[in-house]
Write a structure and sequence with these properties.
The protein has about 500 residues and is α+β, with helices and mostly antiparallel strands. The chain folds into 2 domains: about 230 residues, Immunoglobulin-like; about 130 residues, Serine Threonine Protein Phosphatase 5, Tetratricopeptide repeat (Alpha Horseshoe), CATH 1.25.40. It is about 35% helix and about 25% strand.
């Protein structure tokens, strides 16, 4: 019975050790998921397996982005799809180059995304809305069906299909209208238009014209013109070769054999956020000595940058975020007696890098800690500043083991680099001295020119493991050793 109890204790210790070793440093260090997704627009698609003589002579797409508010469901708070939309009108000129009439179903994907392949089929209710078709000016009925997904044929997704007849040698005009909602995270949203689905028609697409209309002038703050998302995807308008004039992004492609590289994508700041930024900037310029105007500008900038752990590259990115810092500093100069400015600025610094630095490095950015310290010295009873300070201290305490190890590793790396630099400098000096002609005879002393100083790398524990790994293992080994001694037969 006693042996069984000892065995149970050992088993529990083994499980605890395994849990300790395998558990992550903190449950709050979870990574982010994919952004909320919406389907993109698309070109018309010929039926699979049909050898057609119908060519798409021309395709003109006008995608008009506008502010549009609708109820936000639970879980949709980060989605831009409830704050803007795009009204799409696409006109296709089709010509049957053969000598015989052709009749078949034409297809349009209602849940397509090649930017986020294979993900939309998991939300089958998420489809293009208000899809309508006219053929030679006449309304045409459509049928919604399930068929292999554009990006992942192993899955099924929603399509619209409608019957058409293409008389030999004649042009037929097809017009489609529908509404798109953006994918991504607020305050930016991405709109996708897939030209690639037009590859199944005869020959190439003669000419494709795509116009994206924004409600305001295109700037580097209202549209992402460079950079990548946090997932590593490009956010500048795709493909390259576009032009910008006032509020329009324009592509004109000829003799196009569309592939993945030709699909259209734009990443746009919510129109109301951009307009708020423009208004606040004008107000701050008109009232340079108003602390409230500076705070309005800082708040408008907060609403116009993407922040996921730190400032992203969307729109104005870090450059725009730095302008918020300037506005907050100016507000403090104008109204140093207002505690809420210290608290607001500290919260902003936490969001734009302070939290990440504290969580993953255990390091408080100097401006953040200095700001909170100054604020508390002036307003020691301010609840917001007290809470921020407590949060900073909590994060530093939590990250202390990792910060200590990172500092030791950094010190060891710096020491190694310094020794290497010293060695190289001395070697260079010795080489230069050897090459320098001298009239004086030098008698070797038999001693080295210098003795290198070796700084030992901080110990990481037994066999190179961290203490949090080898300590529980050593404890388990000790318990087993005691059991072995206790159960060893008496030789007397």
């Amino acid at each position: 019975m006693k042996s069984r109890s000892i065995f149970q204790i050992c088993a529990a210790l083994v499980l605890l050790a395994a849990a300790w070793i395998s558990s992550p440093p903190s449950t709050t260090r979870a990574d982010i998921g994919w952004p909320p997704l919406s389907p993109g627009g698309s070109s018309l698609e010929a039926p699979q397996g049909v050898d057609t003589n119908v060519r798409m002579l021309a395709e003109e797409v006008n995608l008009t982005i506008e502010s549009f508010e609708r109820p936000v469901p639970a879980g949709g708070e980060q989605s831009p799809a409830y704050h803007m939309r795009a009204l799409v009108e696409a006109v296709f000129t089709m010509r049957n180059l053969g000598t015989a009439d052709e009749a078949f179903d034409v297809w349009f994907p209602l849940a397509a995304s090649l930017r986020y392949p294979g993900m939309l089929p998991y939300t089958p209710e998420n489809i293009v809305s208000d899809f309508k078709v006219w053929v030679d000016g006449q309304p045409t009925a459509t049928e919604q069906v399930q068929a292999p997904d554009v990006s992942d044929p192993a899955q099924q997704s929603a399509w619209a299909r409608f019957g058409m007849t293409f008389p030999a040698g004649k042009d037929v005009t097809v017009r489609v209208n529908y509404t798109l909602y953006p994918s991504g995270r607020r305050p930016f949203g991405g709109f996708e238009y897939i030209l690639q689905t037009g590859a199944g028609w005869k020959d190439s697409i003669g000419k494709a014209v795509i116009n994206v209309y924004l409600p305001d002038t295109v700037t580097a703050e209202s549209v992402s013109l460079s950079g990548k998302s946090i997932e590593g995807l490009p956010i500048a308008p795709q493909p390259t070769g576009y032009s910008i004039e006032n509020n329009v992004i324009h592509w004109e492609l000829t003799d196009l054999e569309p592939g993945a590289k030709d699909n259209i994508y734009v990443d746009v700041l919510e129109p109301e956020r951009y307009r708020a930024l423009v208004r606040a900037r004008a107000q701050a310029a008109n009232s340079p000595d108003s602390a409230d105007a500076q705070l309005e500008l800082a708040n408008a900038i907060q609403g116009a940058v993407m922040i996921v752990k730190s400032v992203g590259q969307h729109g104005g990115g870090v450059t725009l975020a730095d302008q918020a810092n300037v506005a907050y500093r100016r507000a403090l100069e104008l109204a140093p007696q207002r505690a809420e400015i210290y608290a607001e600025y500290a919260r902003w610094l936490m969001r734009t890098g302070g939290w990440s630095s504290l969580m993953f490095k255990g390091v408080c950015p100097p401006e953040l800690c200095d700001l909170v310290s100054r604020g508390l010295s002036l307003f020691p009873e301010n609840a917001d500043l007290i809470q921020i300070n407590a949060e900073i201290q909590s994060l530093q305490t939590e990250a202390a083991p990792y910060a200590t190890q990172a500092a030791l590793d950094q010190t060891a790396t710096a020491d190694g680099a310094a020794r290497q630099a010293t060695q190289q400098a001395l070697s260079a000096t010795s080489t230069a001295a050897a090459l320098q002609p001298s009239a004086t005879s030098i008698t070797p002393t038999g001693k080295p020119l210098f003795t290198p100083t070796v700084t030992p790398t901080p110990a990481r524990g037994l066999t190179g493991f961290e203490p949090f790994i080898w300590l529980p293992l050593a404890l388990v080994a000790l318990v087993f050793m005691l059991i072995s001694i206790r159960q060893r037969p008496n030789r007397s």
